[in-house]
């Protein structure tokens, strides 16, 4: 397997992948489930797993902050064109966009 797939391509079976990567079928199955959950592949019962078409305007984000005792409310999440100052700070190209997140964090009802 050369590592290059196109949308609609059928992935090798769980058995082939587990043999090729020297891992258990259970590990392969869990990995395929994660890829499907993230939208990179889709499966058809009795047929196998296929490569999904890219979704260029869909974003997936997760945060792993220690917010024990805090309550976070996201007010706005928007894709914007960054200012020149932000572009320079992040070393972005002029055509790059960024995600602006506005949130309120409170603890015991008090905003922080």
β-strand amount:
25-35%
Considering DSSP H and I runs of 4 or more, what fraction of the residues is helical?
10-25%
Termini separation comes to 51 Å
Summed up, the helix count is 3
- Show unreliable segments: none
Rg over C-alpha atoms, rounded to the nearest angstrom: 20 Å
> What are the secondary-structure elements, in order, as H or E?
HHEEEHEE
Query: What value does the average pLDDT take?
Result: 86
Shape: extended
Sheet of most strands = 3 strands, antiparallel
Report the structural category: alpha+beta
Placed side by side, the strands forming the largest sheet appear as 3-4-5
The total count of strands amounts to: 5
Structure at a glance:
By secondary structure, this protein is of the alpha+beta class.
């Amino acid at each position: 397997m050369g590592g290059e797939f196109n949308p609609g391509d059928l992935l090798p079976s769980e058995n082939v992948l587990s043999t090729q990567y020297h891992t258990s079928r259970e590990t392969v199955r869990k990995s395929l489930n994660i890829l499907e959950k993230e939208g990179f592949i889709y499966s058809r019962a009795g047929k196998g797993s296929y490569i999904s078409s890219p979704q260029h305007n869909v974003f997936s984000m997760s945060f792993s902050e220690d917010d024990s005792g805090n309550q976070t409310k996201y007010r706005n999440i928007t894709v914007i064109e960054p200012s020149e100052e932000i572009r320079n700070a992040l070393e972005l190209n002029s055509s790059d966009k960024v995600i602006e997140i506005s949130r309120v964090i409170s603890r015991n009802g008090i905003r922080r």
